[in-house]
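haha ok so turns out i had the wrong file open the whole time. this is the CORRECT one, sorry everyone. sequence first:
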Amino acid sequence: MYWRRLIDMFEPLKETTLKMQGTLSDEKKQLSGTFGDDVVRGYSAYDVAVLEGFVGDKAAWLASLKGEKGDQGEQGIQGEQGIQGIQGETGPRGPVGPQGPQGPAGPIGYTGAKGDKGDMGPRGQQGPRGESGPIGFTGAKGDKGDPGYSPVRGVDYWTEDDKEAIIEEVLRRINP
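then structure:
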């Protein structure tokens, strides 16, 4: 860091002053104003850095002066309370907050007037079957019915043996 080197350079002030005086004679400039007419311009910190070996322009030298971030300093003492500021303008209305918890039940209100009769509701589901009633009287004998149909095995139905025989025959034909 060049600034640290600058501080170190000014410690032995006599040596640095003598070293700079030899070069100053070439760069004397007269200044006018409050300092008088015979003021000599000295070296800037950048000039001294270049004399000590810095290579680069002033922007690079200025950038080199910033060191790494140091450790956090200790907490300072509490400052005095400042004066009260002026009242600011009212801000915009904020968003609606979340709903609060359920409050306690209120007192019971008075009974209102009887309302009009409502419409008939929809038909309900059928209820469960009730218990059987007592046996009734035997009725009169009915007329003779038409002859019934007798199912044919192999056309109208198959037995389990028939089904197994059909499956065996199909498998035999697929896999000779």
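The CA atoms of residues 12 and 18 lie 10 Å apart.
again sry for the mixup
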